[in-house]
Amino acid sequence: MSDLMPAPGSAPGPGVPKPVAPPRPSERAWRPDVPIDVALTLAPHRRGGSDPAWRRTPDGAVWRTARTPDGPATLRIVTIERAGEVRAQAWGPGAEWSLERLPGLLGADDDVAGFADLLAALARSARAGETEQARRAMFVARLAARHPGLRIGRSLRVFEALVPAVLEQKVVGREAWRAWRWLVRRYGEAAPGPAPEGMTVIPPPEVWRQIPSWDWHRAGAEAVRARTVVNAARHAEKLEATCGGAGSAEADRLLRALPGIGVWTSAEVRQRAHGDPDAPSVGDYHLPSIVGWALTGQKTDDAGMLALLEPFRGHRHRVIKLIELSGIRPPARGPRMPARDYRSF
Fold first, then answer.
1. Considering the chain, what percentage of its residues have pLDDT values greater than 70?
2. CA-based nearest residue to 272, from 243, 302, 293
3. Secondary structure of the chain: what % helix, strand, coil (to 5)?
4. Where do the segments described as Disordered lie (predicted)?
5. Burial class (CB in 10 A: 0-12, 13-18, 19+), 127
6. 129 conformational bin, left if phi > 0, alpha if psi -120 to 50, beta if neither
7. How confident is the model at residue 22 (pLDDT cuts 50, 70, 90)?
8. pLDDT tens string 41-63
9. Secondary structure of 119-177 in the HEC alphabet?
10. Residue range 112-119: average pLDDT?
C-alpha cells in the first residue's frame, strides 16, 4: 500500500475532502379521499420537455422547484398505490411551506363532486327537450371517466405562473419554452437537495427586473414580452397577495390592469396559481377549433366556444382540459403557425 494512501477504515488525510452527507429532506405523507393522478394534475406546470423547474424520473416521481415566500424549494412527489397515499419530500428554505400546501397543489379543494352533479343535471335536461345539450354533457362525462385522477390544483405562486404565460403569448410553444429554459437557467439558482441534474429555481421578481435587454434578445423574447414581465415583476407582491383570500376574480382584475396582460394570460395564470376550474383560455390560437370540433363536429371561434361551454359554467377550463386530453382534433388543412427566432433579428 502506498504511503500516501490512508489505511482502510482510517480518517482521510490532510487535503482529502470529507464526504458530504446529502441534506435531509422534510417529508409528508398524505392520503387523499379519492385517487389522484399526480403527474397529470401537475402537468400544467411543466413548460416543455426540458423545463428546468419540472421533471419526471423513471421511478414515476415528479420533481418540481418553486420560489416560495420562505425561499427556494425542491419538491419530490410520488404515489404509493398500495397504501393509497401520496408521499412527498422537500428540500430548501421553502420545504415546509411546500409540504404544508401539498394537498392544495394536488387539487384537494377541487370541486370534482360539483362537476359530476352538473353533468348529471345537464344529462337530465334531455327530458326538457335539450337533447343536444344532454348529448354534450354525456360526452364530457365519458371524457371525465377516462381520467378519474385529474384534479385542478393550485400552486399559490402567481408570478411563477405569469412569466412563462407571458413568454407564450402569440408564439408557438417551442419558441416560448426555449426562452423560459434559457432565462431560468441563466438567472435562476440550482435546485436545493438531490434534484435531478439541471433543475433550477425560478429567479425572484427583483432579478427579472434587472435582466438586460440583450439577454432577453439572446433568449428569443422580443421587447414587448420582456417589458410585460419586467412591469409585472414590479407588482409581484400585490399579485401574490391574491392567493391569500382575494381569489381568482381579484387576480383577474389586477392582472388585466397591467400592460401586456389580457384575458388569455390572466386565465393561464389563474388556472395554475389559483386552481380556477372556470378560467377558459379565450384568445388561444387552437382551442376554439378543438372545442368546437369535439362538441359539434364543426370549428368555431372564441365567441362560439364560450357559447358551447356556457352550460358548463363553473368548470369551463376543466371541460377544455378534458377535451384536450381526449386527443380529438379537427383535420389539419391550413398552414402551421411558424416559429420565429428573435435571436437573429
1. 89
2. 243
3. 50, 10, 40
4. 1-31
5. exposed
6. left
7. low
8. 999 999 999 999 999 999 999 99
9. HHHHHHHHHHCCHHHHHHHHHHHHHHHHCCCCCCCCCCCHHHHHHHHHHCCCCCHHHHH
10. 96
Characterize 244-283 residue by residue with b for buried, 16 or more Cβ atoms within 10 angstroms of its Cβ, and e for exposed: eeeebeebbebbeebebbebbbbbbbbbbbbbbbbbbbbb
**Cross-strand partners of 176:** none
Q: How far apart are CA 144 and CA 5, in angstroms?
A: 64
Residue 136's Cβ-side half-sphere holds a number of Cα atoms within 13 Å equal to: 21
SS3 labels along 190-208:
ECCCCCCCCCEECCCHHHH
Cα 117 to Cα 194: distance, rounded to the nearest angstrom: 43
Q: Among residues 277, 279, 273, which one has the least CA distance to residue 67?
A: 273
Q: Which helix (H) or strand (E) holds 189?
A: strand 189-190
* DSSP secondary structure letters along 16-54: PPPPPPPPPPEEEEE--SS---HHHHHGGG--STT-TTE
Nearest CA-CA partner of 312 in 327, 295, 324: 295
Which sequence spans correspond to the domains of the chain? 26-105, 111-150+280-326
